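Please decode residue identities from the backbone states below.
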């Protein structure tokens, strides 16, 4: 008999508000489990065959681009040339907004080419070419549509122009949730690690960078940089000072703000030395024990609402009291504990925002929606089939969807953005399920399965994570905690 559990998603409201990612709506309480027309099922094989990619072409990174936008603008002035100059300024500002101020537009983009020009001369083809050349390509396909002379002696000319204006198109990645990783906070200046103390600020800087790297590698967030602002400003100053092509002025004032900020406080990170003097001897019994604890929050920048908050904990293996080997320096222990902490934080964030789902299914072989540090090659995970959505009868808010355990997933290989694996112990047919109906849950105990060699992704590029630690969750906000993940193999210690 299938057991049903209810799972909440703490960031459901935020994801809907930000419209960061296109997702299929969950079925309502009256809707059965998502089904699709039957697909041809390949026979199960003990050695999973790799799924064939749609194309071998790898697109270059999307860093944005310059494109030309056609606009119409009006301008007024005491002369025809002033009216056209004003219309050109308005056209540029209309496309690029506050990216350039009016003084910069006039000084840098060749609007002074209108000086002492007559209405007839500005309608000529030569003037349009002069504008294009003078502006460095920012203004293209220029033409004066109409020129109205003043009806009164002290009236103003009105010019209407059409032009193509250079505009910077931001990367498509910015449609994702924009996230900033704040520096971690410590309650102490040093961290005890065996027989030595480690500066907390050094550990904090490394932890922050590793969390940032891991979130970037998930491909689920647009992670914003807040560390190298002087170097970035130097590049922007080159544009503003005229050292770069004029068309690149459209890149100014394109910085974006975060949608959510991740903050973390290290409550505990230590590997303590315990010594007890032996009676009638100058020898000591020495042992070590410790662990880590981090409180984390995701905060909505626009509303300052704490979207989700929880405390994660992990333990380091204790050593039995001994009079031998008193020179433990804690270096390896610190590395293992920080591995656990980073993996626990990233796994928690992903489970609350983007549950890992099956996006392609061929027989028992599957492709998963995430790679990087989200899953570990050779590990085994529980899988569930998503059913109907359940709503709270008092608040009307969603409580999640019914989950029915169906099988186990073994990860064969991991790439930066996808993971590949196969299903075992499937109960019932999963061939007709839509993508997203099969979701990954907690890591299971057991000996890691043999992995399939990856010929197209070198080990250094796969972004494989260390095994996810067993973490304890304290009281939190924003919904129930996800199912606990598995403890590391103690052999690593």
């Amino acid at each position: 008999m299938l057991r049903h559990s209810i799972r909440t998603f703490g960031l459901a409201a935020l994801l809907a508000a930000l419209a960061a990612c296109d997702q299929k709506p969950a079925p309502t309480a009256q809707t059965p489990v998502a089904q699709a027309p039957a697909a041809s099922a390949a026979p199960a094989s003990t050695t999973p065959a790799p799924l064939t990619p749609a194309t071998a072409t790898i697109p270059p990174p999307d860093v944005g681009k310059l494109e030309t936008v056609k606009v119409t603008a009006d301008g007024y002035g005491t002369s025809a040339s002033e009216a056209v100059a004003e219309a050109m300024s308005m056209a540029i500002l209309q496309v690029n907004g506050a990216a350039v101020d009016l003084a910069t537009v006039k000084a840098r983009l060749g609007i002074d080419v209108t000086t002492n020009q007559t209405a007839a001369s500005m309608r000529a083809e030569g003037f349009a070419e002069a504008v294009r050349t003078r502006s460095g390509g920012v203004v293209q396909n220029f033409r004066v549509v109409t020129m109205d002379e003043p009806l009164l002696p002290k009236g103003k000319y009105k010019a209407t122009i059409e032009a193509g204006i250079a505009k910077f198109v931001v990367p498509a990645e910015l449609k994702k949730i924009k996230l900033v990783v704040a520096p971690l906070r410590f309650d102490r200046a040093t961290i005890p690690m065996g027989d030595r103390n480690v500066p907390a600020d050094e550990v904090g800087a490394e932890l922050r960078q590793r969390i940032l790297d891991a979130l970037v590698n998930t491909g689920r967030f647009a992670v914003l940089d807040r560390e190298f602002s002087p170097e970035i400003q130097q590049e922007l100053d080159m544009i503003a000072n005229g050292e770069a092509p004029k068309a690149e002025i459209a890149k100014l004032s394109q910085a974006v703000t975060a949608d959510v900020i991740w903050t973390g406080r290290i409550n505990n990170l230590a590997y303590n030395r315990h010594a007890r003097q032996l009676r009638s001897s100058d020898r000591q019994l020495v042992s070590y024990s410790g662990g880590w604890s981090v409180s984390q929050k995701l905060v909505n920048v626009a509303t300052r609402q704490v979207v989700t908050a929880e405390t994660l904990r992990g333990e380091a293996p204790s050593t039995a009291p001994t009079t031998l080997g008193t020179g433990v320096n804690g270096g390896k222990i610190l590395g293992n504990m920080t591995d656990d902490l980073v993996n626990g934080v990233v796994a928690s964030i992903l489970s609350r925002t983007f549950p890992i789902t099956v996006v392609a299914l061929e027989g028992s072989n599957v492709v998963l929606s995430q790679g990087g540090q989200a899953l570990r090659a050779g590990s085994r995970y529980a899988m569930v089939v998503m059913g109907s959505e359940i709503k709270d009868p008092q608040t009307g808010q969603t409580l999640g969807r019914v989950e029915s355990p169906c099988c186990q997933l073994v990860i064969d290989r991991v790439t930066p953005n996808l993971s590949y694996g196969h299903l075992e112990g499937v109960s019932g047919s999963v061939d007709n399920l839509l993508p997203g109906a099969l979701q990954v849950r907690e890591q299971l105990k057991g000996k890691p399965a043999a992995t399939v060699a990856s010929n197209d992704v070198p080990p250094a590029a796969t972004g494989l994570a260390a095994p996810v630690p067993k973490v304890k969750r304290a009281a939190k906000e924003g919904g129930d905690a996800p199912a606990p993940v598995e403890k590391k193999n103690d052999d690593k210690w």
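Observation: The first strand starts at residue 5 and ends at 6.
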